[in-house]
């Protein structure tokens, strides 16, 4: 078994230690030393840097980026329906999805310190399951440095396109960890049919559901109620995630509190990309109730938006700003949302700098965790699965 010692690092800003790695996992943390290592053991000098677990991107769209291509000007209407139509009209000309384009996105994630992603992958009548195959092949090219979990995502709607539910069923049968959904009221305009269809597939295959909800206010709350009811009836506790869910931060106290209690009871989690004009989430109450919150990059330079660079630390900074974070302990909690607390989004029992965890570490030139979030400095070193995979922002693979 290959061995590595990552010397003189400060996990979460604590006292310096050496991280002993065996194979893909962390074997031990020992006091920092300069003693010679045993023959054959690779030694990586951490230089006293701050060490964080590898970032976990809980909401990506790695299959649909034009990163690395010539600039693509924004076109089409700036509505959900408009973006769907524009993407369907243009993606073929850009060769989306493709293995090469997806690999370029994964490399951007990796050089910024992301070592695990949960990626929504478009599944529709035009591309079938090609995007899922492209994502798996791209990840294989990086030899598993970025571990990927697939959400088969019906970006063009579920019920309004005959055959999409069959594609989702096939994706789940072939190993997709989750199936997605999209705005049951606004896109399909038949929330009962969409949700019944999705929950039927999830029950049949034992997969999760990760559903995009953009509706605000009472309409968004109504969709939450429908999902809660179906989780109770199907017993899919702990297997449903709501992405975006903009309505939650807009609801009045009593209604919000009632929903939070039900989310907690049923293990319904949340993922957000912390858009700057959205209503802040009740994230402290969610944390106290054990409701999972994951951070994600969403799309990176795709046909929905020209923004994004794959850096989850910048998303953490946006989250901190949106929620008015000021105190050191709250900055640390935000960093945990992007790292250790996000283990559930990629089905890991533990994801941290502790013995027994996969050896995924990010080293940064920062005094402490708050300093790292506020400045988002270049990643000095990235270790993934016990291998040094990036240095000074450049992927070594």
TrEMBL record:
Residue ranges constituting the Amidohydrolase domain according to the UniProt record: 100-395
GO molecular-function terms, A-Z: hydrolase activity, acting on carbon-nitrogen (but not peptide) bonds, in cyclic amidines
Pfam assignment, any one: Amidohydro_3
Entry protein name: Cytosine deaminase
